[in-house]
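A favour, since you know our structure tokens better than I do. Could you add the entry underneath, on a fresh line?
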Amino acid sequence: MARSTDSDEGDDGFPPEKRLEAPNHRLIEAGIATIPDMETLRECVAYENAHQNRTPILKQLERKATELRETEEE
């Protein structure tokens, strides 16, 4: 299944800015928790690095990356 790389949106149509620029921390956590794949995660990390570069958010993204890697190995 080929995917377009022209968009900043993952398969679920939820772009990094909506995941990471939510008005409260719980919505950001939910946005990170629902990242479906490594490509979307990379887009979110790139977005966060380019915009706010918040260490706690980057740590949450790192934990999500570990979770996705473990899921891919199964």
About this structure: The longest helix spans residues 55-73. The chain is about 60% helix and 0% strand. The radius of gyration is 12 Å. The CA atoms of residues 45 and 62 lie 9 Å apart.
